[in-house]
Structure formats: C-alpha cells, structure tokens
Known about the structure:
Largest sheet: none
Number of domains: 1
Oligomer: single chain
Helix content: 55-70%
Structural class: mainly alpha
Strand content: under 5%
Amino acid sequence: MAQPHSVKMPTEIESEANHSSVPRLEAQATASSPKGQRIPALDFTKGALVLTMVLYHWMNYFTNLTWTHYRYLHFLTPSFIFITGFMISNVYLSKYTAADPRLSKRLFTRGLKLFAIFMVLNLARTFVVPRLGTGVLARNALAPRSIFTVFVSGNLPVSGAKLVVFSILVPISYLLMLSAVLMLPYRLYRYTFHVVCALLLLSVLILGLTGAQSYNLEFVTIGLLGVLTGFMPIAAINDFVRHPYALAFAYLCYTIAITIWSVPFPLLLVGVSLSLMVIYLVGASGSESSRLRGEAILLGKYSLLGYISQIVILQILSASFRHLNLGIVTLGISFLAAFALTIMSVEFVDRARARTASIDRLYRIVFS
C-alpha cells in the first residue's frame, strides 16, 4: 500500500517574465500567450495545491486518520513535481535556447540549492529544534540504510518517527539536475526527454513486476512527464481542459477506482493529470477580482516558501497544543491558525521584498 508522503510541497520555479492577467479561460485559449509569461491560472493551481497541502499536513499532525483516508490527497506531491517539470520546458526553454550553457547551469544550480535547503532544514530539525514537530525524532538517521531510504528509494516510513522532513525536495532537486544534464544531448536530439521518460517508465514497471518500488524514481518520472507537457503551447492546454463535464465524470471514475484499488502508479498518473486540469480550469475561469483567487495566485508565486513555512508553522502549533486536550476546539483553532499563518507568512515576505532591496536579494539568493 502506498505511503502518505508527508511534507509535500512542492518547489517553485518562478518565471521571471511579466505575468499577463487574463480572467477567462476562453480569453486565454485565444490569446496565444507566449511561452515564458506568467500564467495566472498556473499560479492559481500551485497556490491551491499549497492550501490543500495545509489540510494534508494538518491531518498528519493533529488527527489519527489512517492511510486509507489519505489516498484521496495522494496526488498532491506528484502534482507539484509535475508542475516543476512543466516549468522547466515552458519557462526556461523560452528564456534560453537549448544550446545556451546558462540553461544547464541554472537548472543544475537550482537543483543544488533545493538539495542544500533540504539538508539545512533537516540538520536544524535534528540539532536545533529537536523537540518540535511530532516530538519524536527517528534514530539512526545517519545509518547507511536510512541514507539509502532518503536519497535513493524515497520509501519513507508511513508512521512513527520520521527520518526526515521536507523529503519532496530530494526528487525535485534530482529532476532539476537531471534536466540540466539532458539539455546537453537535447541540443542534438529533440526527443531526448521523451526517450529518457520512456526508459524511466519502463524502470518503474519492471520494479513493480518484481514487487519493489522507488518513490524517488516515480516522482522524477512524473516530473519528466511534466517536462513533456510543457512543450505544448498554453493555448492547446487551455483547449484540452475546456470540458468541465467530461473532467467531472473522469474524476468521479478515478475516485471510484482508487477507493477500490488504492493508488498504484498508473492511477497516480491519472490522478495527477485530472487534479491539475480541474484546478487549472477553476483558476482560469474564476473572477479576476476574487480575493480568494488573488491569495491563491500569490501563494503560487511563492509555493516553495509556502511549503516550508506551513511545515514550520504546523510543527510549532503541534508542539504548543501537544499538552492540551480541547477536542474539537483544538482541531478547529489549529487548522484555522495553520491556514491563516501560512498565507500571512507569504504576504509578509512579498511586501518585505517590495520595500527592502536587501530582503529581495536574500530571497533571490535562496529561492531563485
């Protein structure tokens, strides 16, 4: 049975081009937005995933639901990785040509940054704030078997003491660095990513037939599928999702399927695709003046920051409420606090960057 991947958040590969704001899907589909421009509906999609992730992680910290209840949110982590892959081809390949050595350097550097962030955050968790979070730290985190689990298989324990937090940063960093390497042969052969993605899909299939599994491999594969999708024009994607009734029916069938068979890898691929299309459709069709839509778009622009801040906030709330027994009151207060504080943290950084050049430079050094 698949495990609930805690701390799923996602990275942000932020487009540095200007964002064109288009309120309706019909307008987006006919506007032929050039690749590389910010797409409000895509930022909305990332932001909505961040907000849904607050619920997911809050459930991990404050409820005792079993993994069977998490299957309906299992699309979250791979959805963020899929979007990361999409941004690699849709954003970076519009800013640089494949032959430009700056492209590979930038992707590889971003991957290394995410890997470094993962290491720093977990070292801080282990040595600086050991009593936060669940109150339990995994033993033997530096043992060879633990290192293999974190950095190779990605098959982290479902419950109990967690080996690491922010684990999703590992496969995302792998995806970025792999894409940087693949850009070299891509200059000569345009189907490089297609071939590598097919080989990874075959590897996942072979592992499944032998009864083995590697979440890191599966996530990187999903990320490469995102890269392939990013080669498509936005107008073509908009046309594809302009069928709400068909999407609703397909999603109903998917929900029934995972209720019966849980979430094997083929159904996970289906769930990621359908979930992203549904959220994207909502974002593209929503009112431009909606406050909630605006907050989601802002969170989408700061998805990595929102991911990190919500985990820190939930760990602090978990430690603060650990000795209280207020029942439903505790649950309600903790959830609203996590939800509100995550949004506030992103708004604070956004305003601070606009007012203080040094904060903006620091943010770009860490997250860009």
